[in-house]
Predict the structure.
Amino acid sequence: MPDSGVRKVILPARYLQGPGVLSQLGAFVKQHGERPFVVSGKTSFSKVKARIQSSLLAAGVPMAGYDDSVVECTRAKIDGIVARATSMDADIIIGCGGGKAVDTSKAVAEKMHVPVITAPTQCATNADGMADAVIFTEDHKFIEDFYLSRAPILVLVDTDIVGRAPTQYLVQGMGDALACAFEKSAYSICQKSKKGVEQATSAALEVNLKCFSTLMAYGVQAKKDVDAGRLSEAVEAVVEAIKLQSGFGFGGGGCAAAHAIHNGFTVVPGIARKHGEIVAFGTIVQMVLEKRPMGEIERVMRWCVEVGLPTRLKDLGRLDSAYLMVAAEKACDPNDTMSFMPFPVSPKMVYDAIQETDRLGESMHQ
Ligand SMILES: [Zn+2]
């Protein structure tokens, strides 16, 4: 291995996005298997079951079975579905739904050594294209990030489905995607300073930076269009930013302060926002930690206000402020991704940056 480290990129083999692309599922399944098994959540599956079944049937690869009981990506759920899909001789997995169903499907396929195709039903995450599965306990406590040998062979993003899901999913997805340009840059700089560790490719980093400019250019319009039920170019651009550009080539790694701060906030009583929304706030805190120019921070904050992402502590819920230092300490847990910042970050620095973000957020609302 060179001293500078090996450059690594992990990508899905194929990505397809547009209204109606789910109808092509069967034709792609047929290229890789004969006995598809669907992993999904109940609500998601009820919306797409008929379309999936008819596409598979038309291609001559009828569904071998399905499990639509995913509510959380747990070890027990993964093992249970592996047993069921194996007993049905499944040779390809289709993951359908939100992040949890998709993560479960990827872990199931990994354990069965068969390929996986993902077909999201909403836009709150970028889990569909990533080569990892985040595993939780039944009561949603983080256990591990399970890294997979490869990314899905196909990501099928039907904008007729994800673009018509409630707008809040798109907003959450934009919040999560907002972090990528900042976290991937920090992560890349941090890795460069170490010897013999895996390095991000410039190509992947460039796409993550593109994600940010896409959000700034089209995010506000995309939210308005989804609100109005319009599948516009802005919606397509933002869906691509969330589903393909954010996390592009990192396989699941590449996080830094924004996600660590999110993880810290999860211990604060009263937190009432979802993953992507908390990550958006964490992104601004990371920008403050990095001492970015005030104009740059204000631009991101104004955008957050316009699309409905939190910029003040009170936007995150009725937080018990006595726990903010606990959150700052948890964010700096040596096993969390704060360690991928290019400079040492202490709980005090995080605490101060949270307060500074809140103060800036307040002034933005006056
Ligand atoms: Zn995230």
In short: Residues 176, 259, 275, 279 surround zinc ion (CB under 6 Å). The first helix runs from residue 25 to 32. The longest strand covers residues 92-97.
